[in-house]
UniProtKB/TrEMBL annotation:
Keyword Protease: no
Identification of the protein by name: 60S ribosomal protein L13
Keyword match Ribosomal protein: yes
Top-level taxonomic group: Eukaryota
UniProt keyword terms in alphabetical order: Ribonucleoprotein, Ribosomal protein
Organism in which the protein naturally occurs: Polarella glacialis (Dinoflagellate)
Cellular component GO terms held in the UniProt record: cytosolic large ribosomal subunit
InterPro entries reported for this sequence: Ribosomal_eL13
Amino acid sequence: MGHAGNNVIPNVHFRKVNGCQAGRKNRVFMRTWLDQAGRKKRRANNRKAKAAKLFPRPAAGNLRPVVHPPTQRYNMKLRLGKGFTLELKEAKIPVKQAKTIGIAVDHRRRNRCTESLQTNVQRLKLYMSKLLIFPKKSGKKGVKKGDTPRSDLQNVAQNTLREIIPVPKPELRIKARAITGAEKEKSAYKTLKKARTDKKYLGAKLKKAKAASGKAEE
């Protein structure tokens, strides 16, 4: 049998065996997962051991901000970020203090959205309202300013949630409703067009206003 062109001779190494020989010869290629239940138990025990090691601090570690992932594909979702930046200033929490009370800090982060900024400020305020600070030393002299009274520290339960404060789930579906008259009259194209025009001629307008004010002073 001839071949068209100088091609590689096919040799696919087909190992699958039909019939009764399949159980003997093909089993070497099968991946088993017989320790699934054991691994599940081991993960649960590791979580318990980690929580016991961190007690009375939250098992999830430090509090992290809620951020939108990058790119248009994922920016409608919410996830935990690396640390807080501008929100600490808005919530009036010093950066040095934040690191000592279980709040993650990321000095490189930028926040260009007022809504997400306020969301994380409220997240910090909620955390501070529920925060209990244990005295480092025993006795009356061991209690410092800002520590929680010992009467409030009896039988305190540990926070074992994954995010300390759960990440809010945005509602992706909007219920259908009738279009209002104001929405019909408003044109998104005209609004964007005006914004682009104003931005383009802003420098010329400022220059013109400055020149007019200079002539008025003379």
